[in-house]
Amino acid sequence: MLTHLQAQDPDIYEAIKREEKRQAFELELIASENYVSEAVLETMGTILTNKYSEGYPGKRYYAGQENIDTIENIAIKRAKEIFGAQHANVQALSGSPANAAVYMAFLKPGDKVLGLSLDHGGHLSHGHPVNFSGVLYNFVRYGVEEDGIIDMDKVREIALKEKPKMIVAGFSAYSRNMEWKRFKEIADEIGAFTFADIAHIAGLIAGGVLDSPVPFFDVVSTTTHKTLRGPRGALILCKEEYAKNVDKAIFPGMQGGPHDHINAAKAVAFKEVMQPEFKDYAAQVVKNAKVLAEELKNYGFSIISGGTDNHLMLLDMNSKNCTGKEAEHALEKAGISCNKNMIPFDPRSPFDPSGIRIGTPAITTRGMKEEEMKTLAKWMNEVCSDVHDEATQKRVAAEVKELCQHYPVPGIKL
Ligand SMILES: *Cc1c(COP(=O)(O)O)cnc(C)c1O
Fold first, then answer.
1. Average pLDDT over residues 169-177
2. Within this chain, do residues 182 and 88 fall inside the same structural domain, yes or no?
3. 62 is an active site residue
4. Domain, as residue range, for 225
């Protein structure tokens, strides 16, 4: 594998080989990451990357589209079927540009939008001041309560007072079920558009373990590379009446030519999602997260909202007398990868926050189950109980490596 690259560009080749080792021998708890299948990997590496195909199937601006149209039509058909959507656009390059296109399709610059604030689990593209969304649109925010949970009565209060043109429901760091129906009812009271960003949980919705906003919401965006386990990219689903505006917002509004090799890989990933095994995967992701949460609680970790309904959880590292940054660093030394994260009402800063975010999508793809979650919680406790204890980090790293030998990462042969 990679024989041409090895001969032609050893610098890049060697870095990729080292990255393969890193991925193979560490436990990946970053909640937004996953491992794609070998079929998805192969598709991304094909000559489809050579093609320009601005436009949509049957309506392109360049010649030579017969195969590209076939591929994009298959991707669209599968996406619609998986989510029961009226319309799908598969061209969005990633989650943030997909959201930019959604806003462009439904709003004018300066329009008011209600979204979950970043430090309460929202995403940058939901109106953070440093992001295009916060620059172009007038975002107002809802958050979680002291118990770490969104109170829909509070959301309604804010919505009635602010009368936004759109309500965004979605998150990057929230471990509880979203009340899609309540969001829709509130939006209907004020005539607002409903936009669900399911970037983190699309795979769990597709796998039937979480409720879907698609039947209720005007428009839904998702990344394809998180729990959906496809290539890096995104997908927009909407009601038929908004199809034209959404398509126009992606192209020519936001983007030029689609990435056809990635869109083909999306189609391949969608086929995997449609197999019965994917339901088992999605169910196991949540089972693993619940076991991990319970075990961590038994070791004295404090979990925001007290537990999880999905694939992720936020840990308040005050419960282990360290900061999020210290925990992230110590765990990395021990072969366990996660990210520091603000917790709701965090007195610390985004670069040095109080919490870490962990998730089970990647380790579940490797085949790990409840037993491994118990071991993982034990290791996390050992490392986080004294983040300066390098001997423990070293020992755990060796034990992690041993465990990882039994759970190969798709596409990595060492
Ligand atoms: C990850 C994420 C995005 C952004 O996706 P990128 O592909 O990184 O641009 C958008 N919204 C939410 C809720 C996310 O979790």
1. 97
2. yes
3. no
4. 42-273
**CA gap 100, 105 in Å, rounded:** 9
When divided into structural domains, the chain yields a total of 2
Indicate if ligand 1 lies below 6 Å from the C-beta of 124.
no
Q: Which of 273, 305, 331 is the last residue of a domain?
A: 273
What is the Å distance from ligand 1's center to 319 Cα?
29
- Whether 97 and 145 map to the same domain: the answer is yes
| Alpha-helix runs per DSSP H in 84-151 | 95-106, 132-136
Distance (Å) of CA 397 to CA 42, 144, 392: 31, 36, 8
Can you tell me the mean pLDDT for 93-112? 98
Do 267 and 331 sit in the same domain of this protein?
no
Report CA-CA distances (Å) from 106 to 161, 208, 244: 21, 29, 11
- Report the half-sphere exposure of 256 (CA within 13 A, side-chain side): 3
Are residues 298 and 254 both part of a single domain? no
Kindly tell me if the per-residue pLDDT of 255 is higher than 90. yes
Distances (CA, A) of 311 to 16, 125, 353: 28, 21, 21
Return the ligand 1 atom nearest residue 97 CA: 9
